[in-house]
Design a protein that fits this description.
Blueprint (H helix, E strand, L loop, with lengths): L28 H19 L8 H12 L3 E6 L5 E7 L4 E7 L2 H17 L10 E2 L8 E3 L2 E7 L4 E2 L7 H18 L32 H17 L8 E4 L8 E4 L2 E4 L6 E4 L2 H8 L12 H11 L4 H28 L4 H4 L3 H11 L4 H20 L1
Antiparallel strand pairs: 1-2, 2-3, 3-6, 4-6, 5-6, 7-9, 8-11, 9-10
Helix pairs in contact: 4-7, 5-8, 6-7, 6-8, 7-11, 8-10, 8-11
Length: 382
């Protein structure tokens, strides 16, 4: 059975409501539009939340109560949830994610469940989730919830000059993870996430936060193409649980293979979404037709062949995601100016990639994707 955009797990009358908002009891396009608008508004509120400052003593106490671990904690950079490195007395290192926000509970249930479900999969690596002393994937108590995971040893793709071979391997690993995620029925997969493709057509509301000039024009053009040419095809794609943020910061080279971390933006989306997102970050080589992303695309297609529809809209999805990254992060940088440098760490790369891809017509973009996949097949036959 093919799952699509409308297999979203709830009927209009069951959808979460914003305070003071009502949904008319009719079905069809109007009800769907209202549901998507509520989803967008709730997702915006969630991402307008500042990352919490948590006293280290509270985290140390939580480790002792729920895991019988003693050690030290060091806060790491994070946008909404609190992330800390936990070092035990014996030198072992873990990542502790916590929050006091009620909305985080659903997100942590999703993250810990998805990661735990991938622990025995092959072809890629994810951190191991440590069970609490009661055998649970996460802990909950008044004022705080969270989970503890393995801290992977390796280097992020942000820190290395990714060769064609590395990108090919990443693409293949991404496809294998997508296959494994097809089996996931994680709780919270439909929670509002602003990075979800359902929100992209509404992100023009953040255009006022963009600097005037060529970037604003390119973003507007990419979103217009998404709204007019691509969005109507989303319902024809295979939908499933996705990572939704396989960026260079969240992708690692380890001695066990390509690893993926941070499923905090994950949820219900098109299967091809993770390829579009990952590829959008690797448009860096002006001498290549897709800026180098073709190596990643070829690796993905080696394990999970693209359909004609996926090949035709992939570059458009990449541009829309680059535009979403620019818009959302410029908006959040205005909300939290003291954290602007961290929030906008990927913006310059997205602007450069968007400018490069915008020079391709839809027909040329599809041809370059097809050529990348065909070239991979030719190499395999040879």
């Amino acid at each position: 059975m093919i799952l699509n955009a409308y297999d979203d797990g709830y009927s209009p009358n069951e959808a979460p409501k914003m305070p003071g908002q009502k949904i008319r009891g009719d079905t069809g396009q109007t009800a769907r539009h209202e549901l998507d608008e509520i989803y967008f508004q709730e997702a915006s509120i969630n991402l307008a939340t500042r990352a919490e400052d948590v006293e280290p003593r509270l985290l140390i106490d939580a480790l002792e109560r729920h895991y019988d671990f003693a050690g030290s904690v060091t806060a790491l950079s994070s946008e909404v949830e609190h992330t800390a490195a936990a070092t035990l007395a014996d030198g072992r290192q873990f990542i502790l994610k916590t929050s006091s926000q009620p909305v985080a509970l659903e997100s942590f249930h999703f993250q810990s469940s998805v990661i735990a479900g991938l622990e025995t999969a092959t072809g890629f690596v994810v951190p191991q989730i440590l069970r609490t002393r009661r055998g649970s994937l996460m802990f909950e108590e008044p004022g705080i919830c969270g989970y503890l995971q393995e801290r992977l040893s390796g280097v992020s793709l942000q820190e290395v000059n990714s060769s064609p071979d590395v990108l090919f391997r990443m693409g293949r690993a991404l496809a294998e993870m997508g296959k494994a995620l097809k089996l996931s029925d994680a709780p919270g997969k439909h929670r509002p996430v602003l990075w979800n493709v359902k929100c992209w057509s509404r992100l023009g509301e953040f255009a006022r936060y963009l600097p005037h000039g060529s970037v604003a024009k390119l973003v507007n053009a990419a979103l217009q193409e998404f709204n007019e040419r691509i969005e109507r095809h989303l319902q024809d794609l295979v939908w499933q649980v996705t990572h939704n943020d396989p960026s260079p910061y969240n992708s690692f080279l380890t001695d066990r293979g390509i690893a993926f971390i941070d499923f905090g933006d994950g949820g219900w989306g098109p299967q091809i979404q993770d390829l579009a997102i990952a590829s959008s970050h690797f448009v860096t080589d002006s001498d290549l037709a897709l800026g180098g992303a073709e190596h990643l695309i070829a690796g993905y297609a080696a394990a999970c062949p693209l359909t004609e529809l996926e090949a035709s809209i992939l570059v458009g999805l990449m541009k829309a995601r680059q535009s979403a990254l620019i818009l959302i992060n410029c908006w959040r940088a205005e909300l939290f100016p003291e954290d602007a440098a961290y929030i906008k760490k990927n913006v310059a790369r997205a602007e450069k990639g968007l400018a490069f891809l915008s020079s391709l017509s839809p027909a040329m973009a599809e041809a370059t994707v097809t050529a990348a996949v065909s070239g991979m097949r030719g190499c395999m036959k040879a």
